[in-house]
Amino acid sequence: MGGDFYQIIPNPADGSLLIVAGDVAGKGLQAGMLVALLVGAIRMAAEVNPEPLFVIQALNRRLLGRGEAHATCLAMRITADGAVTLANAGHLPPYINGQPIELEGALPLGVIEDAEFSVARFQLQENDRLVMASDGIVEAMNEQGQLFGFARVQELLQTKLSAAELATHAQTFGQQDDISVIAVTRTASLVPA
Questions:
Q1: Where are the domains of the chain?
Q2: 3-class secondary structure per residue, the chain
Q3: CATH number of 4-185
Q4: Does the structure show a pLDDT above 70 at 68?
Q5: For the chain, what percent of residues have pLDDT higher than 70?
Q6: Residue 11 — very low, low, confident or very high, per pLDDT cuts 50/70/90?
């Protein structure tokens, strides 16, 4: 059972999209149970309020008091006009057009009650590509002990690889951990005349 999790929740009422991705600490059954708990909590929180900071704070409350139950997590809401709000709890920052988004550091979920999570806002233009990846990509290690690393991820993203191709590169290099990659490209919307 893997520790990576993600949910992609479209909102038909306003055309927005909520993406939540993360990685729980640990392996095996305990990690799998935490993933199940978090996926349910993401769905519940999104029904109440789809704002990323609200979702992250709700997930943090769910993990408090559960011993070593910690997780990195990134929640992102993209509106129909391309406005992005992103809240981060210690997860790797996403890349936009191959460049990492500058985010302040933040604690993972489940560490302290009133944790301050980093929040960023930016605008996606037509054909902008946003890629989120778990640490299993950068921490892939070959037989010589070399890490796949951030520079290699950024270099590959410049070539406009698909999410599956990026994951395959890391797996082939030497997968050590769960690997998750989510890619979103903003396209022009068709408006009836």
A1: 4-185
A2: CCCEEEEEEEECCCCEEEEEEEEECCCHHHHHHHHHHHHHHHHHHHHHCCCHHHHHHHHHHHHCCCCCCCEEEEEEEECCCCEEEEEEEECCCCEECCEECCCCCCCCECCCCCCCCEEEEEECCCCCEEEEECHHHHCCECCCCCECHHHHHHHHHHCCCCHHHHHHHHHHHHCCCCCCEEEEECCCCCCCC
A3: 3.60.40.10
A4: yes
A5: 96
A6: very high
